[in-house]
Structures are given as C-alpha cells and as structure tokens.
Amino acid sequence: METQDNKRQRSFKNLSIKDSLLGQLEKLNYQVPTPIQHQLIPIAIKGEDVIGIAQTGTGKTLAFAIPIIQKIADNKGQALVIAPTRELALQIEETFKKIGFAFGLKTVVLIGGTPMGPQIRQIKNRYHVIIATPGRLLDHLTQKTLLLDKVQTLILDEADRMLDMGFEPDIKKIFAQLKDQDLQTMLFSATMPVSIARIANKYLKKPLRIEISPAGSTAQDIAQEIFIVTQGKKEDLLKNLLEKNKDSVLIFCRTKFGVKKIAKNLRLWGHTADEIHSNRSLAQRRQALAGFKSGRYKILVATDIASRGIDVTAISLVINYDLPEQPEDYVHRIGRTGRAGLSGKAISFVPPEQKYNIKVIEKLIKTNLPIKTVQGITQQPDTSNFVSQKKSRQKRRRSFSKKYRR
C-alpha cells in the first residue's frame, strides 16, 4: 500500500504541465496526482504511444485528458476518445469539460440511444475532442457525416471491454480511417489479454507500457467476502445485509429481469432504489446515475453495463447478487467501491453449485476470499465436497483426453 510520504513526493508541478493548466488544476483542487497520472502525463505530453494497464478508479481519464488539452491548446489537431459504453463516454466528457472549459475546449459526444440529427449539427460546429462509442462513430464515418483527418491523438479506453463486447471489427475499420495520419495512440485496459496485445502490436508505435496494478488485481482498500447461499435464500440474505448498512450500495445481477425484480423488492422493503440495464433509455440511465450520485437513491441495481466507467466515489458496498459470467468482470464490478482513497466492501452471493467459480476468481486476483455466514440463511462451506467434485472433473478430463489422443 502506498505511503503518505510517497504521496507527498508527487506533484502536478513537475510533470511538464504548462502554468495555465496547472492553475486550472489548482482551482479544481487537484493537488496530488494518482500513480498513473504521475507516470503517464509527462510521457503523453512528449507524444509517445502508451499502453496503460490500470484498474478502474485509478484516475486514468484525467491522466490522458491533461496531455490532450495541453496539446490542443498548442493548436495541435483534434483528439478522438473511444469508449465501450454510453455511460463511460459521458463520464469522460464531464472530465474534459471540467478541466478544459477555461480554455474554450469544445467536445462532441457520439453515442447510441440518441438521434443522429443533433449529433450531425454538433459536428458541423467547431470542436476539439470527439468522444464516441465504436458503433455510433462508425455510423457517422459510413454516412460521411464525420471526418477524422484532423485527429492527432487517439484514446482507446477500456479496450478489453470493447473487445469483450465484439467491437474489434469496428475498431479495425476506425484505424483504417486514420492510417495515413501522424497519430499518437494511447490504449487503456484493466487486463492484458492476447487480443489487446495483438491490437497494440499492429497499431501502436513502440508503445511504453505503464502498469499501475498487475492484471486482475483489486484495490487494496476493498474488503472482500463471500456467502454460500442457495438461490431461494438470496433475497433473505440481501434483506439481512441491507438492514445493517446505512450507506450507498451497488448491486450487480446477471440479467435484466433479475435487476428489475430486485429493484422492485427493494422499494417494497422501504429502500430508495433505481436500476440500470439495457432496456432502459439513455435518459433513464442518466437519471438513475444522477440520483445515485446525489444520494436521492441509496441503492442502484445494475447489470454489467455499470461495472466500468461510473465515477461515483462514495459507494461503500458492492454486492454481487449473481456472480459475473467472466472472472475478469469481478474485478471491474468491485472496483466501483474503494475509490479515490476511500475504503469499501464487496460481498458475493455464491450458490453451492458455483463454488468452483470462486476458485477461478481467487486464482485471478491471487487472494483467498473469506467465507462468512448468517445463521438460518447461508450454508457452512463444504470443502470436502468441493474437492471431490474437482477431482471428479479432473478424472473426466483425463479420460476424455486419453480417449481422443492422437
């Protein structure tokens, strides 16, 4: 864990940031850069390509926004920021506006769920930074309502998430539009799978790698627990845990139906709650997030659409009502708490038949998760049964391999 001495040694003043921009950071009370900001900003200001491996909540948006704003202030082209979700795109725009408004910075956001017409009108006006989701950006490029000929800086944010969502073909088409330009590219990802390495090797020029936390790591200030509970007892466990918690809670479910059902139950139990999933309009999702940020809603229930890019610093508890389908998503989910130097807690509900999934997550994060119990609701861990199931699976795999070995 980082010491106070290390924090005091860091400053925005020795990162090659110009005085006018430093003054704006001071006005906004940005005093000590986070580790990724401290390492990335001077490298990005030099114009180097970068691969940034960092978990959510590390301050990477500001880390790439500052060099971009300084570059644009020097009349060096436009910037393009590509993000996987609408929510993350809007959050990125908020950061750019906060820092860049004093310099007359203009942004345009191109995301789905909103009409093309107003976006086209925005494009026709003078702008400096395009912030877009891949699908909508490609729509504009296909319809020739947008040109990227002045783009000199490209940011791929949450690149692993974009590939998980099937956007790799779109990203390749976007790069094809930029191939003849003198381009600085920065790629950010919480993990470094082979698919990300392949894109970096093809499109980035001798990128410098900055890894703030090892891939799969979780924030040090997050206490993590699991409860072994049958599907039929999950609601009882949730009610029990919420009775003891008075702060903000983010609950993740696997399906839209599950989110709607839990949000409805929470309101019946007397909690203020709202929901986010893909069946809700962009306006509804923004309203839910704004209400959660302001404290109007104590609880937000969501599918994995909210597991990244939602900058709400005061979430005290994340509950995995359902385990994520991909173990990496566990890291992104619980990264919603323990942000900006605050402590947090993450609790996962684990049906007995999914105990092996927890072992996969533990292997990824290199941490053993403590099992907690609530009398009359949860089950005691049955490790002997888990071991016998694992041995049975290994035996079946060996048998299959032997049978079909050539």
Structure description:
This protein is α/β, with parallel strands linked by helices and 406 residues long. It folds into 2 domains: 4-211, Rossmann fold; 222-386, P-loop containing nucleotide triphosphate hydrolases (Rossmann fold). 43% of the residues lie in helices and 16% in strands. It contains 16 helices and 14 strands. It has helices at 4-9, 19-27, 35-45, 60-73, 86-100, 116-124, 134-142, 159-164, 168-177, 194-203, 234-243, 256-268, 282-294, 327-334, 355-365, 383-404; strands at 50-53, 78-82, 107-110, 129-132, 151-156, 184-189, 208-211, 222-228, 249-252, 273-276, 299-302, 317-320, 344-350, 371-372. The chain has a 7-stranded parallel beta sheet, with helices on both faces.
Spans of at least 5 consecutive residues whose pLDDT stays below 50 are 1-5, 383-389, 399-406
Helix content: 40-55%
The CATH architecture designation of the largest domain is: 3-Layer(aba) Sandwich
Portion in strands: 15-25%
User: What Rg do the Cα atoms give?
Assistant: 23 Å
Q: Compute the number of helices.
A: 16
CATH homologous superfamily name of the largest domain? P-loop containing nucleotide triphosphate hydrolases
Shape: globular
The topology string of helices and strands comes to HHHEHEHEHEHEHHEHEEHEHEHEEHEHEH
The separation of the N and C termini measures 50 Å
Major beta sheet, specifics?
A: 7 strands, parallel
Brief summary:
With 406 residues, this protein is of the alpha/beta class. It is 43% helix and 16% strand.
